[in-house]
UniProtKB/TrEMBL annotation:
<protein>
    <recommendedName>
        <fullName>SnoaL-like domain-containing protein</fullName>
    </recommendedName>
</protein>
<dbReference type="InterPro" id="IPR032710">
    <property type="entry name" value="NTF2-like_dom_sf"/>
</dbReference>
């Protein structure tokens, strides 16, 4: 079974929330097995590790070719970015701004249909 595609959600509070939607048949029924939860958690932690590596190319395996990044709030007027544009944005803008940023997982929450990490 291929790993699910990470979805990054932000909640405008003091934490960023990173969640993953498993996308398999059991998830559509709002049921996620422990094995699927473990795989999902592994994917999210891998995504966080890729972010922390400060090598934008390490993010690419977590996105398929149809990936589109939407920046919120939309009032910022920033464009949607495809996979390559997002990786370039990460390389040119995000890395220089946050080079000393470390990701620390504060809490893992599973509700049966998704896994959420508070970081």
């Amino acid at each position: 079974m291929p790993f699910p595609t990470p979805l990054v959600l932000a909640d405008h509070s003091r934490h960023r929330i990173l969640g993953v939607s498993p996308g398999d048949a059991s998830a559509r029924k709002n049921i996620m097995s422990t094995t699927t939860q473990d795989k999902t958690t592994t994917v999210v932690l891998g995504y966080l590790k890729a972010m922390e590596s400060w090598d934008a190319g390490n993010l690419a395996p977590f996105m398929d070719d149809s990936y589109v990044h939407h920046t919120h709030p939309t009032a910022l007027g920033l464009p949607d970015r495809n996979k390559q544009e997002y990786i370039e944005h990460w390389r040119k803008t995000v890395i220089p701004m946050f080079k000393t940023w470390d990701v620390v997982v504060a809490q893992k929450v599973s509700d049966g249909s998704k896994v959420t990490l508070l970081v």
